[in-house]
Amino acid sequence: MTTYLDSSATSPVLKPVADLVYKLMVEEYGNSGSRTHEFGVNAKKAVEKARVQVANVIGADKSEVIFTSGATESNNLAILGLMQYGLDNNRKHIITTKIEHKAVLEPIEYLAKKGFEVSYVEVGESGAVNPSDIKRLLREDTLLVSIMHVNNETGCIQPITDICNVLASSNAYFHVDAAQSFGKLSDDLFSKRIDLISASGHKVYAPKGVGALIMRKRGFASPPLMPLQFGGGQEKGLRPGTLPVQLIAGFGLACELALKNESQWQQHACSLKKSLIHVLDDFEAEYNGQNSSPFILNFSIPGVNSEAAMIVLKGIVAVSNGSACTSNSYAPSYVLTSMGLNDERVGGAIRMSWSHMTDAIPLDKIREQLNQLRL
After folding, report:
1. What average pLDDT does this structure show over 200-224?
2. Which residues contact 159 (CB under 8 A, 6 or more apart)?
3. What pTM, to 2 d.p., does this model score?
4. Which residue among the candidates 156, 164, 255, 325 is catalytic per the annotation?
């Protein structure tokens, strides 16, 4: 049986979460906008309970949680939603990196076409930004700083707390794409200096198709976002449409379980990672990025192409050589290229990622199959 090691792309759904989603699909299937009967009232209660559960992961208030279809939509709403405010107030400068997810880079590229100026912070081989570089780039007209927390390809953890300190005296809005860290490595996300946080359900053991944008208030004012869609007025008018109650409730329960078990799950992930590195060290593997998440390992084996490695590992482990969102493209990883890695290392890069539900990694079989590439 193939061991699933592509949890950065999507994670399995927790059994209690799946049971709740099923119940709300076939038994308690009311529309949370229906106020005239108990089905609607119960649906509304389920949504509001989930709003609290999601907020608790990062110490936010439930009123700051906007439900979306996932981190991609949350990223778009956070970035494009600020466009009109930036235009109206002549604040048209944005700071980000070239290793962000495409769901951040492409909306920012759209703003650049609309006259916004974008400064890209270099990360180097470590895969991490230097907060002093952000400080150097900050200007009076800086509207937004958007830095992901954990990179989806390398697992590199950005120094979010240090960046918050740099931004302490700035009016720039700070957006963090936390798809890979929400409910897994949440401590840094408690900082009140983070204005906008994107999260995705299917990266934290909930179903696909649901996520959230957390909009922290400054004093009593929320970030000045404009909606990207119109019709219905749901989610404070920022995300109209009938709420997928079952998905939202499942996301909420997954967040509650993640918050309760975060430390234990991290320890298990660290153990799996340590055992994998022990095997890969025998192949003189090069690890791409420093200070990476316990749930992700990106590595290259000298002389071994990633496609060849995935072929010999097929049927043993399910792995990736890049982001699932760019899997239709055979171009080299833009993340690793932006880090300045050479072509051979980029071409040989493999990402393995797991969850607390990964009992063990078949290390002996991985070693045996990789040895075939040495012959």
Report:
1. 96
2. 128, 129, 131
3. 0.95
4. 325
